[in-house]
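ok trying again, last paste got cut off:
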Amino acid sequence: MAKAMLQYPTLPFEYEVVRARRKTLAIHIKGGKVTINSPMKASVAWISEFVSDNVSWIQGKIKDQLKKEREVLVLADGRDVPFLGQARQLKVVIASRQKVQVSDEQLVIHTPSRDKLETVWSKWLLEQAREYMVSQTIKTAKAMGLDHKLKDVVFRKTKSKWGHCEDNGVIQFNPIVMMAPRAVIDYLIVHEVSHLRHLDHSSRFWKTVSTLCPNWKQHKDWLNLNGHKLWTR
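nice, full thing came through this time. structure:
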């Protein structure tokens, strides 16, 4: 694999070319950094033309990614932190006993140190997810006549997926979704339970989702548009 950093006067950004055994050109953007995945023998002219043809799209993606980076969750005194879709002002209390207290307008996190703040918050979110989402998943599976296929409900904090259903009947959720509105959480549960019947995203799958969540597209869009706001850097 060969790499090269290229910049042309007519382009408002730099991009890195990564050559590998492939037949086509592809654009990858992460954190505002542009990478062009290229065949080993692709000419500089071909790569340049390809990038030039996609300048507007690339700039849009860079702008969108940088905007999302500015909107990530910040755990600090006075900042708004969502829980069940409602923003609450965060208050940090340094205390030996770890706990989280929630009211309509405030969220208080008791932590041994500020370094442990995110750990305490993540642990509490996991507890809330287990308390609500396990029973709600079982209830949903029963309502859909799929409880015999549901084997277990587990949790894992991963940036790649909000939920996942395995073919053995184990459903996995990302516990930070507890910061989303309850309707969005319930949609996610219906979505994953529906995979117990259809392990795909076919029209039959979405029809199954619609039986209990007719407004699924609205909730799916919410996750796509706002999911990044539930993550810290």
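cool. The first helix runs from residue 44 to 53. The chain has a mean pLDDT of 94.
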